[in-house]
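Example (one chain per record):
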Amino acid sequence: MKKLLKRSIVASAVAAASISMTSVAQAEDTFTVVSWGGAYTKSQQRAYHEPWTEKTGTKFLHEDKAGTGLAGIRSQVEANNVTWDLVDMLEGDSMIACDEGLIEEIDYDEILADAPDGTKASKDFLGGINGCFIPQIVYATLFAYNDELFKGDKPSTIADVFDLKKFPGKRSLQKVPDGNLEWALIADGVATKEVYDVLSTEEGVDRAFKKLDTIKDSIVWWEAGAQPPQLLSDKEVSIASGFNGRFFSAQVEEKQPFTIIWDGQLAEIDGWVVPKGKLTPKMKEYIKFATDTQRLADQAKYISYGPARASSADLVDKHADTGIDMKPHMPTNPANFTNPVVKSAEWWANNKDDMNERFNAWLAK
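Predicted structure:
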C-alpha cells in the first residue's frame, strides 16, 4: 500500500511538472501584441508576425488596445501581472512610460540589427531613440476630402480646411487636442516650424482655441481611425482629418474618390515598447528581426507609412496587392514633406494633461 501511494505521489508530481513545463513552453512560444487594429495591424502581421511564425513557430495573439496602451501597461505593472509582451505606442507616451519605469530600456546597438552598410541602428533610425522606444514607422495625421463635394476649386492647404465660406461643408476632427491646436495656429498664419514656440505661450494656446472656435459648429468629432474615411464616403463631412494609411486604403483598395492634403501633415513616429519584465531572449530576437532594414521596408508594401530607418527608404517597393508604386504615398516622400509639422513628442509629453483639460473644457462650452 505504501509503495502504491509513493508511486501515485511520484506520478502526480511528474504529471504536474509536465503540465507546468507545457504551460511555460506555450507561454514562451506565444507573444501577445497590442496594436491599433485595422489595416495597420494587418500590415504588421504580414510584414513581421507571419514571417516570424514561419521561421520559428512562435504564434501571436493580437489585442487592438494601443489607444489605451499606456494606461494598460501601467495597471499591469502596478498589479504585478504583466500579460502583454509587446505594445505599439506613440513616441510621446513611450517617454512617459519610460520615465515611470513601466517599460524596458533598450540598448539599441546591442539588440537591434545594423543597416546593410554597417551603420549602427542608433544612427540609422530617423528619430525616437529616447531610451525605451523602438521606432517602426513614420505616419501622418492629415486631411483628406471627398472630390465629389468640390466641383470647382479644391482645398489644398490647412487654411482652406478652416475656410468654410470658400469650401463649405462639415469637417471631421479627432476628439483630442493633438494636431488640432497645431493646425489652428497654421490656419491663423503661424509657420509650421514656429508652432511649438507659439504653443508654449498662454497667448498661443488662446490663439489656437480662438481659431478652432471659427469652425466649432461645423465639426463632427471622431474617435476611431476607421471613422473619417466612412464619414467622407457617406458625405456626412466634406473634409476630415485622419491617418494617411487609412485614407490610402480607402483610395486604393476601396476606390473611394478621396484626395489627401499633404500641407501641414502632422508627422509622427510610432513604434514598439516592451513592458517591464518582458525583454526575454526570444523577444530580443524578434525585435531584431521585426525592425531590421528589410522588414521595415516590407511593411510599406501593405500600408502607406514610411519606414523609420533611413536604410529602408530605397527598398520601398510596390503595393503587395495592387502593384501601385508606394514611394509617392509615403509621408516622408520629399514631394509630400514640403510643409510638415513634425510632432514634438517631448512637448506633448510635458503638456498633454494641461492641453487635455483645456480641450475638454472648450468642448463643454
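Caption: The beta strands are 30-34, 59-63, 86-90, 134-146, 171-174, 219-222, 239-243, 258-273, 306-307, 341-342.
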